[in-house]
Design a protein that fits this description.
The structure is a homodimer of 254-residue chains.
Chain A lengths: L2 E5 L6 H8 L5 E4 L2 H10 L4 E6 L4 H16 L3 E5 L4 H10 L3 E4 L4 H15 L6 E4 L2 E4 L4 E4 L2 E3 L3 H12 L4 E2 L1 H8 L8 H16 L6 E4 L3 E4 L31 E2 L1
Helix pairs in contact in A: 2-3, 6-8
The structure holds a DNA duplex (30 and 30 nucleotides).
DNA sequence: CCAACCGATGCGCATTTTGCTGACCAGCCT
DNA sequence: AGGCTGGTCAGCAAAATGCGCATCGGTTGG
């Protein structure tokens, strides 16, 4: 964990440094806030600890500037000796991730440092991607090669289903069951929805993204790791490849 | 801001509830931790406040389970009356986002709540900013392009909800639950509220800030940051499918 | 090798679902 | 009393959906 420790004004942060180092946490102590900004801009830290005397406007500005550094994700923790409650609230609202009053227990300070660092990592947006198609589950949006593509609700859910089950055949009955809670329409509607979905994708310049598996369903194949070119590698039809004449066995998802 | 308040064991959290409500923060108080888990699984909250007596293993388990609910990492704040430093550190390392000792100043508690919530959704200050819109969670004020815009209480909470959930679709049912503690009105009221909120923003010269996602809800999208997308450039494809509608409808980005 | 068959595809229309907007009325707080 | 707020309703507009029908294409059996 890389920690940048600095202070504003004439605050000696030596005691804080001693407290942290005594808990086996290495800090980089830059006494001048100006230098600290340069430092944080050049190198990357997990957290910035700011030793303050009061909640001055200069301090609030500094918090804002430190947070804005490096893709605005570095957490800032403020330590101070004495501070009014309203000032603490002010600093928190201004962007400080935590405010700790000194003297503080070393264990707590370290745990708070870890907590602040842990929080800022891990922004995962649920995006399914297969080839040029990206589907944002949270934002309910689809892009093909970066271009946004409009989808109706059912089309979206259908594409979501196919992407979740990529590389395996999805049967029409499965789609019907997944798309409708109850009151399922005729199975033919699935064909129509597939057709409409294909038309949407074709409108974005993407053809044959959803493949038809005859008498089984549909499939979206992941094309990454292109050791073999799937377009050319599709044999017309291996005549004797299917020993079972009527039932097609294979990777069929329920 | 949607807050779930619960406690472990026989801890009455009524004083915490009173403290928060006295600061105009609405909480949902579920006395039983078991029920609270079910509740958090069903609805989505911005933060879970957990009233503890001590750092028991049950408490640590509960924190882990609450955090893991529904994929979305809901922040958990622990409030307690007295606790050893090592126990506080334990809870923080177990996944708690903040630990506050009671009695605490209401201002600080609220500011810490705001800080914990905004961190987990990607904001850096308690002033939520998306495009020209700035919403001050602490000051309960809204500005559009620097100009203050008056909002009613419901409109403010609705906008706050949309901003906290930026880039993800908010369903109408979620809004209904977030806007009303009990006695929910009909779902159609959400349409009207959105309409009124849009009219406020339009009065400040801002159009199509809140986009409709058909059959799903509403969304506020943040224009993507200057991060360039070096996607393989596809030749411009002929498209006549999207004739640029007057009103943004459906799952279309931007 | 050919033809019949059956599933897949394409298209258009009528219907249903969903969203938008203005209006009305009932509380509530000045 | 009067304005602000908030819930409900009705009418309208738009999007989405289901289905019928025609056609295409592969599979299969002779």
């Amino acid at each position: 964990m890389r920690i940048l420790l600095t202070s504003l004004g004439a605050m000696p942060a030596n005691d804080v440094e001693a407290l942290l180092t005594s808990h086996a946490i290495a800090v980089e102590h830059i006494p001048s806030a100006e230098h600290a900004q340069l430092y944080a801009r050049t190198y990357s830290f997990d957290i910035i600890v700011l030793h303050l005397a009061s909640a001055s406007t200069a301090a609030i500005d500094l918090i804002g500037r430190l947070r804005a550094i490096e893709g605005r994700s570095t957490p800032v923790m403020v330590v101070a000796r004495q501070m009014a409650a309203s000032d603490q609230a002010l600093l928190l609202d201004a962007g400080a991730d935590d405010v700790v009053m000194l003297p503080s227990d070393g264990k707590i300070l370290c745990a708070r440092l870890r907590a602040a660092v842990r929080r800022t990592v891990g922004f995962t947006r649920s995006v399914l991607q297969v080839g040029p198609v990206e589907l944002d589950m949270a934002g309910r949006s689809v892009t093909v090669a970066g271009q946004p593509v409009h989808m109706s609700a059912t089309e979206f859910r259908l594409l979501e289903l196919l992407l979740l089950r990529k590389n395996s055949v999805v049967r029409k009955e499965t789609m019907l069951h997944a798309l409708y809670d109850n009151d399922e329409p005729e199975i033919k509607s699935v064909d129509v929805m597939i057709h409409r979905l294909r038309k949407r994708l074709a409108g974005a310049g993407l053809d044959s993204f959803i493949a038809t598996v005859w008498a089984a369903g549909y499939i979206v194949r992941q094309a990454d790791e292109p050791a073999v070119t799937p377009t050319a590698a599709l044999p017309p039809h291996p005549r004797g490849a299917t020993p079972a004449p009527r039932r097609i066995a294979g990777a069929v998802t329920q």
